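Work Package 3 committed the consortium to producing structural models of liganded targets before the mid-term review. Because experimental data for this complex are still outstanding, the team generated a predictive model from sequence and the ligand definition alone, so that downstream docking and mutagenesis planning could proceed in parallel. The input record is reproduced below exactly as it was submitted to the modelling pipeline, together with the SMILES string for zinc ion.
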Amino acid sequence: MLRSHKFGAKIRKLVVAALKAKKALYECPACGKTKVTRKSFAVWNCKSCEAQFAGGAYIFKSEAGEISSRLIGDYQKL
Ligand SMILES: [Zn+2]
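The resulting structure, written out as tokens with the ligand in place, is given here.
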């Protein structure tokens, strides 16, 4: 019971933010329409052009994902 998301203000705020980000629509990098929804854990699907993307678990682009994609781009230039 102690490791539940029901008790504690901070953890409840984090859960509400994650569920909001999970349900939201995001802009598709392939076609530009705001139609990207979460298909399953870290899999995101565009309802318009059926493109699939790997993203964050509960948000389309996580902070760690953006950092790693930036680093990959930097190392490709070398
Ligand atoms: Zn699309």
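Reviewers should note the following from the model. The CA atoms of residues 36 and 63 lie 18 Å apart. These observations will guide the Year 2 experiments.
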